[in-house]
Amino acid sequence: MDVAEKHPNIEQHLIEQTRKKMIRHAIEKLPEKQRAAVLLHKYQELDYGEISKILECSESALKSLLFRAYETLRVELAPLVAQQAKQ
Amino acid sequence: MSCGRMEKKIMGYVDGRLKEGERLEMEKHLSTCAACRVRVSEFRAVNVLLDELPMIEPSAAFDIRMQARVAAEPAKQSWWAWFAPSPRVALAASMLLLATVWIGSRRPDSPLSAADIEKINQNMSVLENYDVISDFCAAERIAAAGAG
Fold first, then answer.
1. Fold of A3-86
2. Which residues of chain A neighbour B34 with C-beta distances below 8 Å?
3. Does B23 touch chain A (CB under 8 A)?
4. In chain A, what are the domain boundaries?
């Protein structure tokens, strides 16, 4: 009996850990302002007006920031994005 | 709508934050543009991937910079705020009012009335010689003169 059979969730757990590490790494690699925009938008759930005040930029500039951040993330996470898009 | 204009709208579309008119315009464009359809699909996939992470706290450095920026922000007051009562000003004004009332209601130090003062003024010539008069003893002087 090998380890995978003994603990059937270990492999799945490792895959999930790797995915999370990749996502976290991709976010950390974003330029600071883009990263802040993503964090405030996605995790703090602030609206565009609030985020643009915090980042001292116009709403239009904020939308461009978020667009560029998502463009970078979709390239950095291409394998995961493709996998996700198929589902 | 062109692909260039999509840039400003795509996040709102993916988040479901577009107004009805904008959403319809976006969908019209997507129905004819395969590249933008792929982009929307992949942005949605990125959104789902970001959901996999537990809430990420901003780094300590970001937090400190943010707090410093908020602290440096001057308090914005409207012109009407000038009329808003400040606790310090209100306290100072009430202290001044109390002091004025207290000073106004205080009795003068002298117990003499105006009539008394008038009488004193009339007899001032006598009072000016009070020391001489009070020291004067005619009997003693006469006795002293008789003995001499």
1. Arc Repressor Mutant, subunit A (1.10.10)
2. none
3. no
4. 3-86
